[in-house]
Amino acid sequence: MCSSLIPTGKTDLRGFIGWAEYAFELPCLRDFLDAVPTAELTPLESKQTDEEEMKMTYAELSVFGRLRKVDRQGPYSMFQTLLHTWDHLTPSEIAVKGNNPDDNRYDMRPFLLPQFDLAYRKMDQEIEMMKAMEEGRELNGG
Question: Which helix (H) or strand (E) holds 39?
């Protein structure tokens, strides 16, 4: 029962600490919330941040985790979903983030199945089609 209270990632942990700050009147927890996440084994002088190193925010990583683990989406279906929900990134940027091989914590398929070459080719084709359509509109409009 108690295990359901344990946060599963840094985004969940930050939410839990934020809740505890107010629920238990512990203003000292604000320091944790204001701190920039860094790798635990990297010296503080390095100014390295997790989000810069991963090239994605913890909020984005949390969305990836939910799509992979809960919705059981692969690279192409994640790309399709994110095209309609992430308006802060271009389709190319979404594809690059989705192809990040460094984070497979929620997706064991790369270890069990062949590579996702077809999915990545489909993403590239779709991006090229979107660019062509966009260029066509600009040419017709100007």
Answer: none
Kindly state the tokens that stand for 20.
């505890």
In this prediction the pTM is 0.58
**Mean pLDDT over all residues of the chain?**
76
d(CA 60, CA 70): 15
- Sequence-ordered alpha helix ranges (H) in the chain: 10-23, 30-34, 50-54, 58-65, 75-85, 91-98, 109-112, 117-141
Cα gap 9→89, rounded to integer Å: 23
Instruction: Report CA torsion sign: 89, 19, 41, 65.
Output: negative
